[in-house]
Amino acid sequence: MEAVLQRLAATARHRADGAERPPFGLCHGEFHRTSLHVSRTGCRLVDWAKAFCGPGLFDLATWFGTRTPTEPRLLTRLIHAYVAAGGHPDAEADRGGLPAARWALGWHRVWAAWWLLSAAAAGHHQAAADRRHTQVVLRQLQGALDLLGTPPPISASCPSSNAGRSS
């Protein structure tokens, strides 16, 4: 995990550019189908436990979750629909030298790893789950590196956990 964190730190400086570009502000942090309740009287977004102030593209990136391989083209379509519906036009602008969707998905994976580590530090899982928890955090960080464009490790002793998967 140390090597992945070092590689992420090396790329973070130039990939963070554009983080405060609009839309920026209150983010739900877990914007997906189970947080959106639709009734005859309207739509309501519930479960604000992971809310924070940050790049609004993160909420669009969370719609797809973190358990499956990322698909930047799907997020690009969602961002386009957001703008077409009246969202801030800068949502489609490149950030950190990357297309908006790839940037948002990469940084969302970093945020997901941070959240998982925060939950572990607060004692929200049992010690018996540590190995699995570490694997999930590492998968999020490796996914972030893949999206943010960091080159693969030089060492042949670290086979990619994403073999056969596309982003």
Automatic annotation (TrEMBL):
<protein>
    <submittedName>
        <fullName>Phosphotransferase</fullName>
    </submittedName>
</protein>
<dbReference type="InterPro" id="IPR002575">
    <property type="entry name" value="Aminoglycoside_PTrfase"/>
</dbReference>
<feature type="domain" description="Aminoglycoside phosphotransferase">
    <location>
        <begin position="9"/>
        <end position="86"/>
    </location>
</feature>
<dbReference type="InterPro" id="IPR011009">
    <property type="entry name" value="Kinase-like_dom_sf"/>
</dbReference>
<dbReference type="Pfam" id="PF01636">
    <property type="entry name" value="APH"/>
</dbReference>
